[in-house]
Amino acid sequence: MKDAAPQTIYLKDYTPPAYLVDHVDLRFVLNETKTRVFSKLHMRPNPDAASEAFFLHGEDITLIAAKIDGTAIDPQIDATGLHHTVPNAPFIFEAEVEINPSANTALEGLYMSGGMYCTQCEAQGFRKITYYPDRPDVMATFTVRIESDLPVLLSNGNPVEAGDGWAEWHDPWPKPAYLFALVAGELVNHPDHFTTMAGKEVALNIWVRPGDEGKCAFGMQALKQSMKWDEDVYGRAYDLAVFNIVAVDDFNMGAMENKGLNIFNSAAVLASPETATDANFERIEAIIAHEYFHNWTGNRITCRDWFQLCLKEGLTVFRDQQFTGDMRGAAVKRIDDAIVLRAHQFREDAGPLAHPVRPASFVEINNFYTVTVYEKGAEIIGMLRRLVGPENYDKALDLYFSRHDGDAATIEDWLQVFEDATGRDLTQFGKWYAQAGTPHLSVSESFEDGTYILHLSQQTPPTPGQPEKEPLVLPIAVGLLDQRGTEIVPTTLLEMTEASQSFTFDDLQDRPVLSILRDFSAPVILKHTQSDATRAFLLSHDTDPFNRWDAGRSLAQDVLVRMTRDQATPDQSFLDGLAAVLRDDSLDPAFRAVVLSFPSEDDTATALFDAGVTPDPTAIHQAHEALTLYLAQHVQDISPRIYADMTVTGPYRPDAADAGRRSLGNRMLSLMSKLDGGKQAQLQFAQADNMTQSQAALTALLKIGKGADELAAFETAWHADRLVMDKWFGLQVGCAAPEQAAGTARKLTAHPAFDLKNPNRFRAVFGSLKANAAGFHDPTGASYALLADWLIKLDALNPQTAARISAAFDAWKRYDANRQTKMRTALQRIADTPGLSRDTTEMVTRILG
Ligand code: ARG
Ligand code: ZN
């Protein structure tokens, strides 16, 4: 790779662009190896600029010719771009460049995927298409002409005109280059339309490769629901005559919100009952919504610079979470989000990759599309909404849209809007954006003469580069119950601002039972002091569904920690509590299913580490297996009945009600298979008419060391379906016994359908290897070495995805000396690879610390 020496970029060094672009004309003459890009940039000096130096970004492109105001120039070119002198007045810069889409395996810029041309420009891919000020605070209108024999030619905005072998598009909304997109291919569409609240007709299309037409209907429905929801809840209507979505097989991330032309990883949009699971359907609905919502939060209002990424991502994740809550039930959605946040974001915050939601510096911005920026960024919005209240939140958002429409904005702008709309001082709250690490919240209680006092203290452990932490504003939702489970103080929001603070509740008859951090009102780690008995009480009586689940979760976590440490047996009362929830037919099946599922093995490793114990992934795995078996035995009298009750009849529907029933039924199936040798799972696999049921049955079989015949049948049935085959690859690695995981992954890399260039396939194998905690941490180090080998190979082709997956090693310092040494050796071997990309270099350097 010809990457320039890695350079750290700092937020504090931001300066406005020297030149602005008012309008861009682009002409693409497409060719798989020699595409010509003709650009005409209508530019002018920026009156607010500090410097006059003229520079256009450009990487991996060949300049054929350039002109300023019609006169040929011979600019100075280096590895990062183009320099020249320009007039001190408006001028036109023209360039002709050549690029090679078929050589582009990094999937950034213009590349080929399955015979089609497509683009990915966020964050800095446009500079691989032509010379341009590739920074989000330079916004221009675009006109794009595409010349190609391919039948479908798409770009941003509205279609202008098309003829034989060409098409022209115009995007009237000024946008940064990262929102540019182009697609050309032999595609078929799934068309529909939507009428906005202003009465405007919008043509909607999902474009796919021939053969995938049958997998578009659900995505289209989700798109229309998203458009309606954004009108109803945020008052935001769509602003072009067409909205196109294209499904692409080779894609580094989930999807991309290019103006009027969203490009999706096919896994994030294509679904049919036979090929996608309930979880896939829910994820697709959320991603369609997410990208659509970006049209206002990201596109109409974009980011001044990449340090402000959370401005669009945190807010848009928060909006898609609200949407899913409204579509599918807020309580289970909040639980799902908390599980993800604790498992991934808290882990990131506690390790060498910890960074603020708005980072202060980066080497490669692609390494900062993280759970911290996205999910913790969304939590900050949620806290803000709780603190100011829903009406004030709506007022502030209206002000945000009216004040900043068309702007490239900052977090300061965002907070200022809330201060102006509500009169609240958000100086201290703003520290959430700058301070990394997860606050620990310690709780103690006292009760005397009818007065109950809650003593809270917060403390955030140091993170890399931030040894000292300050107290944050914590919205803490609490309720108090009496000993019979009646709510005596309904949910009340306490605002904690100090390191230590007490809150008093008067006139109580008896000592109340505390229900704290209801609905997970702040992303903190609760250092609970509640006894097993109190938590069991909350599991059966709390009126807040999140806390009801969380009480059971925290009991299960303690049980798993005890079982790992001293091969203890689980308490009967804990198993009885779970069985009581299972038997309670008045509870939503989806809720029962989440209560009946345990923390992950990685969660247990974290819990042990936090308790000062070095986690042994092998012992953790055995404890989890043992607890599952105890639970299976404990509920064996009712599990077949519940399994049968949860049968869904009629045609498959991916809605929350049916998905919840399948989820509980399949939890029963996994427990039953521990005792029946897989008989029921084999039956379910044979009879299944949808992927949710076949995948659950296959998983249950693989987890008990069976399922070889089913695996073979699955491959025969689905070998031609790329997305289903990703499941086939992933399940084998994810469900392998610990000592077999590395061998299974290695064997699959030799399978003819393994494709290093396809990120979904690579993730199916190696993402699943990381997720198989005991297999990844097999004490021989076989998985570490295998992953290092393949990351080195992948890095030469696709640095972005290699860098992301290298984060699998981030928790290496938690483990014993043997595992630490082996992980460090693997990391060092990656780091020492000649020509390693800037992306992966930054990651392994930070991980090694
Ligand atoms: N903005 C996209 C989204 O969140 C993510 C694209 C990021 N891509 C990248 N290569 N960093 O929807
Ligand atoms: Zn996004």
Protein model, in words:
There is one protein chain. The protein has 27 helices and 31 strands. α17 runs antiparallel to α18 and α24 (782-797) packs antiparallel against α25 (799-806). Among the domains are: 1-101 and 134-167, Immunoglobulin-like (Sandwich), CATH 2.60.40.1730; 303-434, Neutral Protease Domain 2 (Neutral Protease, domain 2); 440-522, Aminopeptidase N, middle-beta domain (Immunoglobulin-like), CATH 2.60.40; 719-849, Alpha Horseshoe (Zincin-like fold), CATH 1.25.50. It is globular. A hairpin with a 2-residue loop joins β25 and β26. The strands form 9 sheets. Strands 6-5-9-3-2-12-15-14 form an 8-stranded mixed beta sheet, with no helix packed on it. Zinc ion is lined by residues 290, 294, 313, 316.
- Through-space gap between termini: 24 Å
**Strand sequence of the main sheet, in spatial order?**
6-5-9-3-2-12-15-14
* Strands, total number: 31
Identify the bound ligands.
arginine, zinc ion
What gyration radius follows from the Cα positions, in whole Å?
A: 27 Å
Helix content: 40-55%
CATH class of the domain at 1-101 and 134-167: Mainly Beta
As for the CATH topology of the domain at 1-101 and 134-167, it is: Immunoglobulin-like
The helix/strand class is alpha+beta
Shape by Cα distribution: globular
Report on the biggest sheet: 8 strands, mixed
Q: pLDDT under 50 segments (min length 5)?
A: none
Strand-residue proportion: 15-25%
Tell me the CATH superfamily of the domain at 1-101 and 134-167. Answer: tricorn interacting facor f3 domain
Task: Indicate the mean pLDDT.
Answer: 98
Cofactor: Zn(2+)
GO molecular function: alanyl aminopeptidase activity
Domain Peptidase M1 membrane alanine aminopeptidase: 219-429
EC number: 3.4.11.2
